[in-house]
């Protein structure tokens, strides 16, 4: 039995390592290949050994590590949010302030990350010190039926900024952030959004002169 569990732990760990540091996950991410009881036991053992980290109830991550600081970094809140969304089969969308942070348009790390969700409103304390709160707020998610997650991030961030605060430096930041391969798909995906937002997205997707 011990050898059997060690083999399962190694297989699960291999999958986790394959996703890279920063990835967050729950047992739901492994149910296609393993028995649920064995998954729970394996994750608990791996967390106790320090190979993975428990970041909140039922959610773990493969911690990012800073060579400069010589320690693990705080959990990637967006990864945690996505892990919970997969677990509960929720559709989620970062709120405006969260989107600004994810896109590099805000340097302030929020104490509370708010995501809109078609699931119930819930709060999660993230990390051992619990200084960061991940909040899901039930919403109809109107206007978030985008094919690409990046589309929703752009739209939410621009709405939060407002037309008057979008200047050349903002467009430059967004242009650098957006994968060139996604420029055409994003333009197609957002063609029905408000006029001023679409015009800015077009500028983001253009090659600079």
How would you describe this structure in keywords?
single chain, 209 residues, alpha+beta, Arc Repressor Mutant, subunit A, 2 domains, 3-stranded antiparallel β-sheet, 16% strand
Give an overview of the whole structure.
The chain is an alpha+beta fold. The protein folds into two domains: 71 residues, Winged helix-like DNA-binding domain superfamily/Winged helix DNA-binding domain (Arc Repressor Mutant, subunit A, Orthogonal Bundle), CATH 1.10.10.10; 116 residues, no CATH class. It is 44% helix and 16% strand. It is built from eight helices and nine strands. The strands form three sheets. The protein has a four-stranded mixed β-sheet. Strands 1-3-2 form a three-stranded antiparallel β-sheet, sandwiched between helices. A two-stranded antiparallel sheet has the order 4-5. α4 packs across α5 and α6 crosses α8. The longest helix is centred in the N-terminal third of the chain and has 18 residues. The radius of gyration is 19 Å and the shape is elongated. The mean pLDDT is 90.
| Domains (count) | 2
Report the total helices.
8
**Total number of strands:** 9
Strand order of the largest sheet: 6-7-9-8
Please state the CA-atom Rg, rounded to the nearest Å: 19 Å
Mean pLDDT: 90
The largest pleated sheet is described as:
4 strands, mixed
Helix content range = 40-55%
User: Helices and strands, in N-to-C order?
Assistant: HEHEEEEHEHEEEHHHH
How far apart, in Å, are the first and last alpha carbons? 65 Å
Q: Report the structural category.
A: alpha+beta
List low-pLDDT spans: none
The dominant shape is elongated
Beta-strand residue fraction: 15-25%
């Amino acid at each position: 039995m011990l050898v059997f569990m060690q083999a399962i732990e190694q297989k699960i760990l291999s999958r986790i390592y394959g996703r890279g540091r920063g990835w967050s996950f729950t047992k739901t991410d492994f149910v296609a290949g393993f028995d649920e009881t064995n998954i729970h036991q394996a994750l608990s053992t791996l967390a106790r050994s320090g190979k993975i980290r428990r970041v909140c109830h039922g959610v773990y991550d493969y911690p990012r590590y800073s060579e400069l600081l010589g320690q693990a970094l705080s959990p990637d809140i967006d990864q945690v949010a996505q892990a919970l969304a997969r677990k509960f089969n929720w559709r989620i969308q970062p709120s405006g302030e969260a989107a600004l942070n994810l896109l590099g348009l805000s340097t302030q790390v929020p104490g509370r990350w708010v995501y809109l969700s078609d699931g119930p409103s819930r709060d999660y304390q993230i990390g051992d010190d619990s200084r960061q709160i991940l909040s899901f707020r039930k919403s109809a998610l109107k206007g978030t039926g985008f094919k690409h997650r990046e589309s929703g991030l752009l739209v939410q961030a621009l709405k939060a900024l407002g037309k008057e605060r979008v200047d050349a430096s903002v467009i430059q930041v967004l242009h650098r952030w957006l994968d060139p391969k996604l420029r055409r798909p994003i333009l197609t995906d957002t063609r029905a959004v408000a006029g001023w937002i679409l015009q800015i997205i077009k500028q983001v997707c253009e090659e600079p002169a």
